[in-house]
């Protein structure tokens, strides 16, 4: 009872003129509007902060994924380039000198019959020594500016490439599962054979080109049509040479693996010891380049390519079997036009 009396006394107060007035227990309309406005401004700031954080995290995640993809692809290309094979021709000059000395000594002490046999041996040795030079002169001189469509077959395992494509011969022992040869049901795909000498090709396929199908696109229910991206083709060297020489280029272009549709461009440069070259043919040059520079452009597949700038990654790979190319005086005079 005493508590209720105190509450009533607190609710009722005297004004200055002696009138009774009651205490307000609510907010005015102006105060309510100001409170709502402040709440809206605060929620807008919080939403902007969260949106900025999410966009920053998405951008960082996209950059990290592109960097990881570029590093993985660069490492794969480096492993293949470092395994490039280029056998050194056997030097038979000592054997030729021995055969010539043996033939001359036998002809001088053995009479006419031995002399005839000596002259026959000498002729045979001259014929044998001329064959390699003939095969060397008949090495391929195909233009390497369009390796994807032209047949460029190396006489000796090595490297041939231009600014946008590289083809190398690698030497690796086949894995155990490669000996289980699966028969392909697609007549347009070449069947690989287990061997220790493989031809590896890297190039970027156009978005509208007829080539390798994107197998990952079938997971979302699409038809799996071909799309652009970096293609890696690994085939037995004999299978590759047979396809090129027999005109099976369409089947060759449909054989391989689409590594990354995110890679829209790739460029190769070849270091000869003094300058970066835009094309290389180990049959013509005679050696492998000392190093190869790779420039790769990667985009974010979640955004339109027209609304973004591709990020470029650069990597230089040193070839263990590469040698410094020494030009003879005749080649230097030919290049100088003398």
How is this structure best described in words?
With 338 residues, the protein is α+β, with helices and mostly antiparallel strands. It folds into two domains: 58-85 and 156-336, no CATH class; 93-134. The protein contains eight helices and twelve strands. The protein has helices at residues 2-11, 29-82, 93-109, 111-137, 237-245, 249-253, 282-285, 329-336, and strands spanning 12-14, 20-22, 159-161, 165-171, 197-205, 229-236, 257-260, 263-271, 276-277, 280-281, 291-298, 311-318. The strands form three sheets. The protein has a six-stranded antiparallel sheet. A four-stranded antiparallel sheet has the order 9-8-11-12, with helices on one face. β1 (12-14) and β2 (20-22) form a beta hairpin. The termini are far apart. 20% of the residues are buried. The model is unreliable at 109-145 (pLDDT under 50).
Shape: elongated
Helix tally? 8
User: SS-based structural class?
Assistant: alpha+beta
Order of helices and strands: HEEHHHEEEEHHEEEEHEEH
Spatial gap, N to C terminus = 126 Å
Domain unit count: 2
Low-confidence stretches: 109-145
**Number of beta strands:** 12
**Gyration radius, in Å:** 38 Å
How would a textbook summarize the main sheet?
6 strands, antiparallel
Q: Which sequence of strands runs across the widest sheet?
A: 7-6-5-4-3-10
Strand content: 15-25%
Average pLDDT level: 74
Q: Summarize the amount of helix as a percent range.
A: 25-40%
Short description:
This protein has 338 residues and is α+β, with helices and mostly antiparallel strands. 40% of the residues lie in helices and 20% in strands.
């Amino acid at each position: 009872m005493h508590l209720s009396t105190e509450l009533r006394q607190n609710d009722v107060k005297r004004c200055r003129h002696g009138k009774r007035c009651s205490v307000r227990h609510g907010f005015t309309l102006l105060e309510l509007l100001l409170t709502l406005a402040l709440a809206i401004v605060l929620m807008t700031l919080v939403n902007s902060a969260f949106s900025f954080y999410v966009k920053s995290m998405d951008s960082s995640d996209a950059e990290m994924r592109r960097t990881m993809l570029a590093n993985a692809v660069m490492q794969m290309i480096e492993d293949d380039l470092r395994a490039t094979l280029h056998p050194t021709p056997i030097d038979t000059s000592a054997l030729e000198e021995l055969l010539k000395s043996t033939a001359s000594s036998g002809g001088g002490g053995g009479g006419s019959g031995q002399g005839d046999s000596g002259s026959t041996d000498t002729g045979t040795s001259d014929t044998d020594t001329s064959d390699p030079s003939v095969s060397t002169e008949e090495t391929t001189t195909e233009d390497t500016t369009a390796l994807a469509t032209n047949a460029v077959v190396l006489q000796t395992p090595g490297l041939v490439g231009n600014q946008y494509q590289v083809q190398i011969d690698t030497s690796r022992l086949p894995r155990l599962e490669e000996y289980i040869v699966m028969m392909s049901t697609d007549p347009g795909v070449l069947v690989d054979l287990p061997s220790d000498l493989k031809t590896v090709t890297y190039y970027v396929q156009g978005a509208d080109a007829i080539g390798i199908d994107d197998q990952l696109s079938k997971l979302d229910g699409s038809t799996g049509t071909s799309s652009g991206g970096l293609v890696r083709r690994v085939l037995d060297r004999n299978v590759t040479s047979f396809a090129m020489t027999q005109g099976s280029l369409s089947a060759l272009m449909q054989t391989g693996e689409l590594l990354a549709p995110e890679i829209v461009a790739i460029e190769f440069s070849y270091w000869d010891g003094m300058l970066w070259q835009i094309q290389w043919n180990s049959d013509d040059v005679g050696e492998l380049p000392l190093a190869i520079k790779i420039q790769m452009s990667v985009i974010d597949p979640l955004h339109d390519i027209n609304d973004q700038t591709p990020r470029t990654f650069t990597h230089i790979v040193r070839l263990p079997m590469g040698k410094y190319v020494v030009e003879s005086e005749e080649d230097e005079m030919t290049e100088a036009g003398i």
